[in-house]
Write a structure and sequence with these properties.
3-stranded antiparallel beta sheet; 4-stranded antiparallel beta sheet
């Protein structure tokens, strides 16, 4: 009898330690948790990810494919308790950084995850370097935990495919006014690698915009992509450097010629303005004199005749010879 009682108490103690005490857990500050009961996550009624604003980035086809349920997220803190038939899935939501060439399924790919290759529109195989900043979405933990088997691999594959498509079809935006000779020369000798290097900011912004849907697709937010380097193949690097040097020389010569022409145009306009002002300065006194004589004639014609006689006398005094017209 004592043995049976001891066995019962031992079983009770083991049960309490194994299933009750072990059922107490906490969630760290950088973690979020989802609890499942017999494999089913605790859901928020019938709400789906389509009811969340993050689904606005999905098109109609994707809205049907990624219609994930919204689950109850356990915030940091505790202690919390779970029953033996329940399981807690903890996920870190801290922001992480990874090289954009990293392949989660094959780490040795892309030169051990250091350089990502892509082909430009003029068939040059370039090497891209940069980083991706990401974090797990607290608003779509179902997709990360249960919707996709390897969500990070999916996100990296999606990012690389979008980036390679953009590199293959990239065209530099036309920011040069029409008729600008420098812009026309640059367009005539444009090279895709040069265009990409000059527009890295636009390229990064395009990638951020195109990858907004990753949160609704896979439960991972791509906070930012930072492409830092675009390098040409080694065999064409010297030729590309020579082309760039020649292009820069042509652009410099065109700029100098245009600056010289603009300077001459400005000087010509200034000369015309000066001569116009001189003519106006000479004409203005004559106009004022004509106005005064007109008023004098209206008010006292005799005074006008006297004024004309005095002007003639002054001219006669300064003249050496006087020729008078005589009618025969």
């Amino acid at each position: 009898m004592p043995i049976l009682i001891g066995a019962v108490f031992g079983f009770i103690a083991w049960f309490l330690v194994r299933y009750l005490v072990a059922g107490i857990y906490t969630v760290d500050q950088n973690e979020r948790a989802v609890k499942t009961s017999f494999g089913r996550a605790q859901r928020l009624g019938n709400a789906t990810i389509l009811d969340d604003p993050i689904a606005q980035a999905l098109n109609e086809e994707e809205r049907e494919r990624y219609k994930y349920p919204q689950v109850k997220v356990i915030p940091p803190g505790g202690p919390y308790f779970k029953w033996p038939w329940e399981k807690v899935h903890k996920i870190s939501v801290a922001t992480g950084t990874v090289n954009m060439a990293y392949d989660p399924e094959q780490p040795s790919a892309n030169q051990s995850g250091t350089i990502l290759e892509a082909v430009t529109k003029d068939q040059l195989n370039t090497g891209l370097t940069g980083q991706i900043r990401y974090r797990v979405s607290e608003r779509n933990l179902y997709a990360f935990l249960f919707g996709v088997k390897k969500p990070f691999a999916h996100v990296m594959g999606y990012f690389v495919s979008v980036l390679r498509e953009r590199i293959a079809n990239f065209e530099a935006p036309d920011k040069t006014p029409v008729g600008n000779a420098v812009g026309e020369a640059a367009a005539a000798t444009g090279i895709s690698i040069n265009d990409l290097r000059k527009n890295l900011r636009d390229l990064n912004e395009h990638m951020d915009h195109e990858c907004v849907s990753s949160e609704a697709r896979y439960g991972i937010v791509l906070d930012a992509s930072l492409i830092t380097g675009i390098d040409p193949p080694v065999e064409v690097e010297s030729a590309l450097a020579a082309i760039n040097t020649a292009h820069n020389q042509v652009s410099s010569d065109i700029s100098l010629a245009q600056a010289s022409a603009d300077q001459k145009i400005v000087q010509s306009r200034r000369a015309v303005e000066i001569e116009t002002l001189k003519a106006q300065a000479e004409v203005q006194p004559l106009r004022r004199l004509a106005q005064e004589l007109g008023h004098l004639k209206e008010n006292d014609p005799a005074a006008l005749r006297a004024y004309v006689r005095n002007v003639r006398l002054a001219l006669f005094e300064g003249a050496n010879h006087v020729y008078r017209e005589v009618k025969l």
